[in-house]
TrEMBL record:
<dbReference type="GO" id="GO:0042302">
    <property type="term" value="F:structural constituent of cuticle"/>
</dbReference>
<dbReference type="InterPro" id="IPR033778">
    <property type="entry name" value="CPCFC"/>
</dbReference>
<feature type="domain" description="Cuticle protein CPCFC">
    <location>
        <begin position="20"/>
        <end position="36"/>
    </location>
</feature>
<protein>
    <submittedName>
        <fullName>Cuticle protein 1</fullName>
    </submittedName>
</protein>
<feature type="signal peptide">
    <location>
        <begin position="1"/>
        <end position="17"/>
    </location>
</feature>
<dbReference type="Pfam" id="PF17223">
    <property type="entry name" value="CPCFC"/>
</dbReference>
<keyword id="KW-0732">Signal</keyword>
């Protein structure tokens, strides 16, 4: 009796199990048919997160330094007097 019950429950579990398509990791989209497009863009097909700087290179320190240069201290001005140089008040 328990063998038949176990077989029926096993077949039911297999029949109800969700199958994810190739390239979609269960950790990325747990509600499989209703996936968030942003979540799919943030992960590789293997489920590894893509670093933020790959999707948005503007946050790289190099890009930030090129777009917003840091002002230089004058030659005769001691840096200890004004750590926020252009704004010394």
């Amino acid at each position: 009796m328990y063998g038949k019950l176990f077989a029926i429950l096993t077949l039911t579990a297999v029949a109800l199990a969700r199958e994810y398509p190739a390239g979609l990791h269960p950790a990325i989209c747990p509600n499989y048919p209703f996936c968030d497009a942003d979540a799919l863009a943030k992960y590789t097909p293997q489920g590894m997160p893509i670093p933020e700087w790959v999707r948005n290179p503007a946050i790289l320190p190099i890009a930030r330094a090129a777009s917003n240069p840091v002002p230089k201290y004058p030659a005769d001005f001691p840096a200890a007097l004004c750590p926020n140089y252009p704004y010394c008040w």
